Amino acid sequence: MTASFGVASVVLGGPSPDQMLAEAMDRADKALYRSKLEGRNRTTLAS
Question: What is the pLDDT of residue 47?
Answer without folding.
Answer: 82
